[in-house]
User: Fold this.
Amino acid sequence: MKLQQSFLPDGRVQTTIHFVHPVGEADSESVTGSRVRWAMACTPNLIQLHASRGRPVPYVRSDDPRAVTCPACQETEVFKQAAGRQEPAARRV
Ligand SMILES: [Zn+2]
Assistant:
């Protein structure tokens, strides 16, 4: 898998991590047995992102808004809602 990366203003390289969110049930099981259908916030038409045998998902992604670095994902309403819901890490202990 080739990582999507971008340069930060200070010259560091950042891996692009997209925001994914559940949108119902998938047609098939993932390699982990999950049947959740995931959609990518910045590319709504790209759904059912789970890996299947012999077909890894070529995107780095997270359902935790705190991990997301994709600027396009961060602009979406679904991301903003999820980020607003997120409690500070210290309070979750
Ligand atoms: Zn994205």
